[in-house]
Amino acid sequence: MKTSLYKIFFILFISFFASCKKSENTSSKTITAVKNEIEYSSNLAIYKYNGFSIVKVLNPWPDANKNFTYILKEKNATVPDSLQKYTQLSVPLQSIVVTSTTNVPFLEMLNVEKSLTGFPHTDYVSSAKTRKLIDAGVVKNVGQNERLNIEKLIDLAPEAIVTFGVDNNNPMIANLEKSGLNVIIQADWMEQSPLGKAEWIKLYAALFGKEKEGKILFDNIVKNYNDALKLVTNQKAEKTVLYGSMYQNQWFVAKGHSWVAEFMKDAKSNYLWADVDGSGSLGLPFEKILEKAKNAEVWIATGSFKNATELGNSNPHYEQFDAFKANNVYTFESKLGATGGTIYYELAPSRPDLVLKDYIKIFHPELLANYNFTFATKLN
Prior knowledge:
Helix content: 25-40%
Strand order of the largest sheet: 7-6-5-10-11
Number of strands: 19
Radius of gyration: 26 Å
């Protein structure tokens, strides 16, 4: 009798131990290397596992002293112990707040714009589809980027807030996290590669469980971009280009490795500041600009000017440029939404294929004779 009891206890013990061991192995299993789902972006990485994804946001702002890691967990999935220290979000999300107009097109492309519950400066949103949600009160105004209304965000209780930082001191982000809100830092604005910036659609695809749809959308943009590149394969970069305009006694030109300069290079133009190292912009006095670009054939002006007269009235010295005299000035910023938002700033980062076509139309109009500008406007 005792022997039988011992056997029963022994079997139960072994079963219990095996069960615990199995559970332990599941929760502390080694994370094996998988392929990064991101191809072009320098600031985003996504690693897809069975039941969860690891999202890494790199170089989130200039001279950043840290990166960010997020775990996107599917229902009933087990996340290894080694990843428990990172912010976890249950996906697919049902509600979200974003803080940049560049995020709105991604939501719309994935058909999840109705999940947007809040946005700062709602007047900046130009898309008719999302404006309709704002006007109906579905999307609430949640303040300003640097001073988000935390009380309103707590009331809205979004499952995630996607925002950004500008330097290593981000008290607003810390306050959001202290309030128990899930915050995701994004760095799409740090991307200088046109396709790299557009690839951030894959983050939103992962958040909403639409990875397949996101990949199809992005692959189509890549194809369109590459098709546009083929148009200018045999073209020479001959047309000299001036970029920018005066702002508070300085003229800001795009540096040679900036997002804008990449488009001008890909469109086969001779951008006069292409040799300036770095990204971002460089401020120069007017005299330096005139000295170098007086005879430039094309001027890409910054600002929401409607015509050449309005541009000339803003600064009488502009009339000294040959491009102005020849009526060969363009801007990408004149098309505005119903409440004053700039369509280019909102949509261009997610549709670099259309931006590139606009530039090709400017520099090599014969290649796209029947193409109508998406963003650019010639200032007549």
